[in-house]
Amino acid sequence: MNEFIQTLSLGGSGPSIAIKDSIDIAGYATTAASRALADTPPAQQHAEVVERLLAAGWHIAGKANMHELAFGMTGINDYTGTPLNPQDATRIPGGSSSGSAAAVGLKLADAALGTDTGGSIRGPAACCGVIGLKPTYGRVSRRGVAPRESSLDCVGPFAREMQMMVAAMEAITADFDARAAQALQGTCNVGVVQVDAMSEINRALARAADLAGFASRSIELDHLGAAFDAGLSVINAETSRAFGHLVETGKLGADLDARLRAAARTSAAQLDVAEQIRRYFTAAVDHALAGVDVLILPTLPALPITLDEARGGTSVIAMSSLIRPFNLSGHPALSLPLPIRGSPLKAGLQIVGRKGADEQVCAIAARFEAALAA
């Protein structure tokens, strides 16, 4: 069972939850699914989100597997094994929170925690047919989470139903208003962001808005492509600072070794441009949200590729083209399973809200969920 690095039985008799192996659980090593960190001593204390879950009576079922060092989109890991995609065993589960998404999709846990630096919750959620939320940057504590410092990374939950998603957010967030997250008042206006994605996914997205009874209008979101590139520069620089020293151990997977060596070449000039783009894109998203309640767009531009294609060298960089930009801007973004006519696979419907409006994003997602299930 590659979904867990280690199964556990900690806590109360509440809902079961899997914890990504980049989040500290006291008494257990946090290895980020890497051979290079296999000898890491056990964590001395729980990450704050783990403390909160245990205090709320949740039951920790295990440490979830992941793409090594949370630095990849496929979820393939030749050291700890590759989690199974619940929708199609021949396809990638997505990364980096692959084990968390797969464990929820396979019903090995009621919920899971992952981390999202460049789409690492929303991407695997879309691949595996579950719900995944990247909260507003800074809304959920990152104390006890690797890497220790990040201007992009967010801890967030996976679930199969919005009701469980809201319960998980209430447990891990000090000020989350569960009542507001379950009660959408009145009508809702959504902005449909125009993006380059599979025509079947774009059609399913438009159909979902109609089914939910939402008023919708088309939106061109400025700087989206530039924000994708800028986000990569920031991720490369920050991951290199956190884990670059592991290259010299010779214990990294080949893909991680190559990515970290390339990341080390990120220049100060690239970062200056990235921070400028961060300001431009954040303003563009805020401006777009001034006229609508949320933005909607596909989570991924296409269905996940096969494991064989990924191992054969098919590029997956475009997988994060529609999710990474919102790490750069810091807005809350949720991926909801999106049925596609004529396909056994579900895609992802991404819902982006105003900063701090995580509850509204959840409430609107619940309305979409009900409409798509009808």
UniProtKB/TrEMBL annotation:
GO terms for molecular function: catalytic activity. InterPro entries: Amidase, Amidase_CS, Amidase_dom, AS_sf. Coiled coil: none annotated. Pfam families: Amidase. Residues 17-362 form the Amidase domain. PANTHER family: GLUTAMYL-TRNA(GLN) AMIDOTRANSFERASE SUBUNIT A, MITOCHONDRIAL (PTHR11895:SF7), TRANSAMIDASE (PTHR11895). Belongs to the amidase family. This is Amidase. It comes from Paraburkholderia lacunae.
